[in-house]
Structure formats: C-alpha cells, structure tokens
Design a protein that fits this description.
201 residues; Rossmann fold; seven-stranded mixed sheet
Length: 201
C-alpha cells in the first residue's frame, strides 16, 4: 500500500517534518507501506505559478499524482495565526481545483506543530473541516505537537493511536468486523412473546 506524507514545514530541520516522519514510521509498524514524502517547501514557486497560469509544473503535477493515488495520507502543517499555513492551504486548493473529488474516501491522518499548546484546537477548527470538505475520511485521533511535547510523555501514545487508526482504515480492518444487522425486522408478535416470558408465567 502507498502512504503519502505531506509536510508543510518551512525550515531545515523542521519539527513538522520530524512529526511527519514519526507518524509514518508508526503506521509502518502497524502495516507494510511504501512511504513517499511530499515537501511543500520545495513546491512553493510552482504552487504560486499554478494560481496565475492554471497549470501545474512538473514537480507539482507529480506531487498531486502521488497524493491522489495514495491509499492513505498523513498531512502535517505548522500553525500560523491559529490556523494551517498558507502554503499548506494553497497546495490543497490547487489539488481541489484540479479535481474536487480527488480525496473522496481517502483515509487521512491530520497533524500540526506549534510553539504552544494553546493552538492545539487547530486540528478541530481548521484541519478537520478542510478535509471533511474534500470528502476525505479523517481518522478520529489528530496529533498536535507543541514545543514542550517533544520528549514528554503522551506524544508517543497519541502518535501510535492515530497511526493505528490510519492503518486500520487503509487495510480495511473496520470492514472485517462483524456488522450487526439493525435493519432486521422482528414480527411484533415475536417481540411481545419475548417480553411476556414463557406462557402461563
């Protein structure tokens, strides 16, 4: 299976890329995957040109193909002004313009990095709605890493939990669980007999 990691980190080294790599490694421990990383920093100029001329450059087109062909996505952005970065949003704007259903049904793990824990809600008020709009399937656990989280207890647990959820969606484990048939119709007389107990009681 193909796992594509989209990192919007700007610096080298980048805490955003570090979190992305740790998440990808955790998914790899759950299920065999081929990992491809898309560094948006390297695509910034082509993304800007795409907005003005309507055509993706060679590297941007390859990145779009990788993302749209993935069995699962990990997307990680630094937090700017209490939301995702402009570069991150621009990439997914370009992708949505090229094909509004490009991510429909694709499992996505959302993650973000920031200087303070006060921005942790960015996952719920910005990232989750963005990917819901793109009709992706976002795993329940998002991962936010503030500066103080690195090396602290708790981050590893969140990474493993989110990775397990993504791996489960990618491998279809949820489909393998027994499904209760809530639509089965039970005749009223049978339900009434079950309530009244054995006859003569």
């Amino acid at each position: 299976m193909k796992l594509v990691v989209v990192s919007a980190g700007l610096s080298v080294p980048s805490s955003t890329r570090l979190l992305a790599d740790r998440l990808a490694a955790a998914v790899g421990r759950q299920t065999p995957v081929d990992v491809q990383v898309v560094e948006l920093r390297d695509l910034a100029v082509e993304i800007a040109h795409n907005f003005t001329n309507g055509f993706p450059g060679k590297a941007l087109a390859a990145a779009i193909d990788a993302v749209t062909g993935a069995d699962g996505l990990i997307v990680v952005t630094p937090v700017f002004s209490a939301s995702y970065s402009g570069l991150f949003k621009s990439f997914f704007d370009v992708l949505g313009v090229s094909d509004k259903d490009a991510l429909a049904g694709t499992p996505v793990l959302i993650a973000a990095t920031g200087g303070t824990a006060r921005h942790s809600l960015v996952l719920e008020h910005a990232l989750r709605p963005l990917f819901a709009y793109l009709r992706a399937v976002v795993v329940p656990t998002g991962v936010y890493a503030a500066s103080e989280d690195w090396g602290a207890e708790g981050l590893d647990g969140r990474i493993e939990r989110a990775a397990g959820e993504l791996a489960g969606l990618m491998t279809g484990l949820s489909a393998a669980r027994p499904v209760r048939n809530d639509l089965e119709v039970v005749p009223f007389a049978q339900q009434l007999a079950a309530l009244s107990g054995p006859s003569g009681a």
